[in-house]
Amino acid sequence: MENNNSPRATFTHMEQGSAEDWKCIADAFGPFAQGLADRVIAHLKLLEGDFGGFPVDRLTHCLQTATLAHRDGKDEEYVICALLHDIGDTLGSYNHADVAAVILEPFVSEANHWMIKHHAIFQGYYFFHYLGMDRNLRDNYREHRYFAQTLEFIQKYDAPAFDAEGETLPLAFFEPMLKRVFEKPKKSLYKQAFEEKAEEMA
């Protein structure tokens, strides 16, 4: 957490900001960004004990999805996508997949980002028809280059991960992976600026 006595910008409107003001902000960003993985982990823990009518709580489901992917030999980035795919359930009740995708986007491949962003549509095959919806909505994406990957994610890892007796590795097992994946963004509006800042401080 930032020290309240740290230097702060003095403007009341962004148009008044000076180079010194933005240096204060840039200097504060580095330490704050380094804590991102810990904040993500803390937010993921909010899913514990939240069943939402499902056979297991939402955290167990996420852990089990990641466990299945890990045991199947998927790489760390994919496993962390599996771990965080439902992290949006707390704040994105109507668009949880979008929330997860936005959190992951700077750190993962285009394919993995697309998979997480669209996983809610693909999993709908199993239940949309019970809600008066089109279970085949995923077919709108059948020609997309990431269709097969997303289908596999649902069939092999997401859909089967509601087994109270199934193997579920603890969150602590995945934390080092998550920290490595979130260590440095692959893409961001601010990527170049803050990489140059990091080099100056090195």
Structure description:
With 202 residues, the protein is mainly α. It is 52% helix and 0% strand. The protein has a single domain (37-181), classed as Hypothetical protein af1432 (Orthogonal Bundle), CATH 1.10.3210.10. The chain is elongated and about 55 Å long. The chain is built from nine helices and no strands. The mean pLDDT is 94.
Beta content comes to under 5%
| Number of distinct beta strands | 0
Give the tally of structural domains.
1
Helix count from the secondary structure assignment:
9
State the assembly state of the protein chains: single chain
Poorly predicted spans: none
- CATH topology annotation: Hypothetical protein af1432
The CATH architecture name reads Orthogonal Bundle
Taking the sheet with the most strands, its summary is:
none
| Rg computed from alpha carbons, rounded to a whole number of angstroms | 20 Å
Order of helices and strands: HHHHHHHHH
Mean pLDDT: 94
Helicity range of the residues? 40-55%
CATH-assigned homologous superfamily:
Hypothetical protein af1432
Distance from N terminus to C terminus (CA atoms, Å) equals: 22 Å
**Overall geometry:** elongated
Name of the level-1 CATH class? Mainly Alpha
